[in-house]
Amino acid sequence: MAAATAAMQRSFEDCKAQFPEGTKNMIEKNKCNATAALAIRPFTTYPDLFDKYWATRAVIAERVQAGKMTIAEANQEATQTQSDIAAEEQRRNLANRSVGAQESAAAAAWLASPSVVVVRR
Questions:
Q1: CA nearest 89: which of 35, 34, 52?
Q2: 78, 56 in Cβ contact below 8 A?
Q3: Which of 5, 36, 59, 66 could bond to 11 as cystine, CB 3.0-4.6 Å?
Q4: Cα angle, residue 51 at apex, residues 48 and 55 outer, rounded to 5°
Q5: What's the CA gap between 83 and 64, in Å, rounded?
Q6: By 3-state DSSP, what share of the chain in percent is helix, strand and coil, each rounded to 5?
Q7: What's the rounded Cα separation, in Å, for the pair 54 and 36?
Q8: Phi, psi of 102, rounded to the nearest 5 degrees
C-alpha cells in the first residue's frame, strides 16, 4: 500500500506540472488525476465508491470546461460528492459490523445451548 500511495503522489505531482493552476483543459487534467489515483484502487474497501467519485469528477470537469460551471461551483460539488461517499462508506462499515455482531451473538448462543443428543432405537 505504501508503494502505491507513493506512486499516486508522484503521479499527482506530474499532473500538477502538466496542468498548472488555471489550466483550461479540465477534462485532461481530471483524466491525469484519475489515472494517478488508480494506483490505490486495489487497496480501497469499496472500489465502486472510488469509481463513482472519479466518474463524478469527470462530469464536473466537462461542465467547467464547457463554461457551464465555475471553479467554485465545481469545488463545492466535488466536496459534496466526497462527503456523500464518506457517509455511504460509514453506513456500509456500520452495517457490516452489525451483521458481524449478530453472527457472533448467534454463534455464542449456539455454543452455550445444551447439547441435543438424538438416540435411535
A1: 52
A2: yes
A3: 36
A4: 135
A5: 21
A6: 80, 0, 20
A7: 11
A8: -65, -40
pTM for the model: 0.76
Scan for cell 484502487, then name that residue. 41
Contacts of 41 (CB under 8 A, 6+ apart): 47, 50
Where exactly are the structural domains of the chain?
Answer: 2-92
| The residue to which cell 445451548 is assigned | 113
- Confirm if 71 and 64 have CB atoms less than 8 A apart: yes
DSSP alpha helices (H): ranges in 1-121?
Answer: 2-18, 26-37, 47-65, 71-112
